[in-house]
Amino acid sequence: MRISVNGETHDVKEQTTIAQLLSELGKNPKFLAVERNRELIPRAKHSDCALEEGDELEIVTLVGGG
Amino acid sequence: MSELPELSDEERSRYAWQMWTPDIGEEGQRRLKAASVLVSRLGGVGGTVAYYLAAAGVGKLVLAHAGNVKPSDLNRQLLMTTNWLGNPRIESATRRLKELNPHTEIVPVAENISSENADRLVSQVDLVVDAAPLFSERYAMNEACVRSRKPLVESAMYDFSAQLTTIIPGRTPCLSCIYPDDPANWKREFPVFGAVSGTVASLAAVEVIKLVTGVGTPLTGQMLWMNLREMDNRKLPIERRSDCPVCGSVDAEPSTDSNLG
Q1: Which InterPro entries has this protein been placed in (chain B) (predicted)?
Q2: Sequential DSSP letters for B68-109
């Protein structure tokens, strides 16, 4: 199925969870905020949250420069 | 803040244009004069925060920054000057702020924040702006602010990204709720234009002004995330963690008449 990640189209398997997507993208979930269709998905729910066709995801890397 | 300090005629002239803000007025300006703010590090973010807070007439600034001015500071650290290369940053910063506004009391601290000095420095102020480039300093500041229930404006950037949130201990997520672990790959040195660090700094200073005067709605329980490459800005909701080791057992205290409560 087709989803969008930070504005770019990605093809992922049905029932892919956010945790699986982050793993496939090589991203460490501890330093990220993930928004699905403009709703923040808490880190603890990444493994339970299955994506659906057409989902729009924003993956934000947290920063610390001062 | 029951007894607000009076303004002199010179101060009324200096702050006239901001006192025209309908819900600021003379009382708002007196609140700013009564306020004290700790700024952790005076780099591209913190230095610009301090500059705007001094310009706005905040009564006391406690400023923490170690080290000497280096050439590579000068693309963004607007309180550092070329003639002060090799000399203490805190001296350059104090001089620049005094040149801008002699009414603001500056308490210079030639140290960065650590678990050793954080409580002592936080105890001297009403609220804190964190602009440190190292997470060890940010965590120490967060823990001290939670212990003392002082508001903390968290401002950070990297490259063309900026993030901002206002932490009210006991009411909003704290830094440890947002970042459960120290980002292992974070480095003290990072790509930065002064215009980007200055952008998040200006917004952090606005948050301080709002907290002190009670004007507007502070950026609590949300993180403003700015992608300046695309000028795409949004606010992400952030949540407290009930098992947060820093603030999980902290309850909200009754609020006061300003946004500081």
Answers
A1: ThiF/MoeB/HesA, ThiF_NAD_FAD-bd, Ubiquitin-activating_enz
A2: BB-GGGTTT-TT--GGGBTSBHHHHHHHHHHHH-TTSEEEEE
